[in-house]
Amino acid sequence: MREKEAGGAPRVSLVIPAFREEERLPRYFPELAAALADLPVGLLVVDDGSPAASFAALKAALTPHLGAKHRVLRHEINRGKGAAIAFGLEHAGGEFFGFVDADGSIPAAEVRRFLLLGLERQGWDMLLGSRVKMLGRSVERSFWRHLTGRVFATMLSESFSIPVYDSQCGLKMFRSERYRAVKGLLTDQRWVWDSQLVILFHRRGWRVEEVPIDWHDTPGSKIRVVRDGLRMWAGLRRFRRHNP
Known about the structure:
The protein has 244 residues and is α/β, with parallel strands linked by helices. It has eight helices and nine strands.
């Protein structure tokens, strides 16, 4: 497998959006970096306006594990998960882009399996991690997170005619040239940024596929199921009004 593209950029730039993640990400990042060490993948942590002390602690913990392929960037102001990912991608290179949540809910070995599948498989434009309870996969999440996730995915499917099972899973990979073609149409900077991206890819007839992954709830989630669920749905409705 080619380690790097021409010019030295990894083939895959994987963004990790982070807000006040000085506790969880320092445990997860070394596992992730080790799991991906032999793959042409660069990790790009984007701190989304955490307090200065929080960011300093995060950067100090991650610095020994950065190496040549991995970097840490920072927003001065908290703007949301989508904005953090977009900011990271503006500083990224390579044939493929992607992101993974900072909380460690997706085991490092699963991230490796997912990315390796993307590098080896042909013909796709976007791959979505999908938390499907099925034989051979391990998915552990609370009843309420599962319920709100299913409701949101069903609403997205019905509103935009997209047969997606899990639109909100925090692991996605897509072709960088496709992303650059539609990034200017993304309007949400927080929780439905990636849902909008899925919609834009699907509407252009680009190939979007779901990949079942292992996933487990991690303590310390910053998502408030009811409040953020309503905000996500409101954001999706606004997007639909402008993109019927």
